[in-house]
Amino acid sequence: MKYKKALFMLLELFLRVVINPRLRAFSLRLCGAHIGHNVRIYEVQFLNLENGFDNLHVEDDVHIGMGCKLDLAGNVFIKKGVTLSPGVTILTHSDPGKHHSSPICSEFGPFVSDVIVGEFCWVGASVTVLAGSVLEDRIVVGACSLVKGKLESSSLYYGIPATKARCLNLG
User: Fold this and answer.
1) Element housing 33 (H / E)
2) For position 8, what pLDDT does the model report?
3) Residues 98-146: pLDDT tens digits?
């Protein structure tokens, strides 16, 4: 298991130096990620690669900006037409220190939960999406927001935590 994780970490480092975002998407597909067509993935960091890249599911026409961090402890589903702006972090787990027996774990137990980003969402720069969050279709999340829970479709959200500012008229 240690060698397998080490191999995945080496692949992750290699993916960071692949210059072309379309070639990076193709390379991820070869590494086991589920990547659609017309996907551009700029320099990103992948966390928790125990399962390799198998937990990454990206549909067609997706743009993942520079400096994004994607936690692959659980599944990350990025639907068609999504734009993740630079610096977006998607977390699929929470762990206050299970590996070193932190007493905080008794109050805040570790968990893994999938994240879903619905079709045609635009997630602004430096947004953090916490484990278990679901963004329905056609959502805009303002820069530097913290997403937790379920966000309703065709809406604008922003803030810490992200709250609904208004509905979007997207005909």
Assistant:
1) none
2) 83
3) 888 889 888 888 999 999 999 999 999 999 999 999 999 999 999 999 9
Residue that has been written with the tokens 């702006």 in this structure? 85
Q: From CA 137, how far away is CA 50, in angstroms rounded?
A: 30
Residues 128 and 106 sit within 8 Å (Cβ to Cβ): no
Residue type (1 letter), 97: G
Structure tokens at 45: 């960091």
Q: How far is residue 133's CA from residue 110's CA, in Å, rounded to a whole number? A: 16
pLDDT per residue as tens digits for the range 68-84: 999 999 999 999 999 99
Q: Which residues contact 72 (CB under 8 A, 6 or more apart)?
A: 46, 47, 48, 49, 51, 52, 53, 55, 56, 92
Are the beta carbons of 125 and 86 closer than 8 angstroms? yes
All domains of the chain, ordered by start, with CATH? Answer: 2-167 (2.160.10.10)
DSSP characters over 34-69: EE-SS-EE-S-EEE--TTTTTTEEE-SS-EE-TT-E
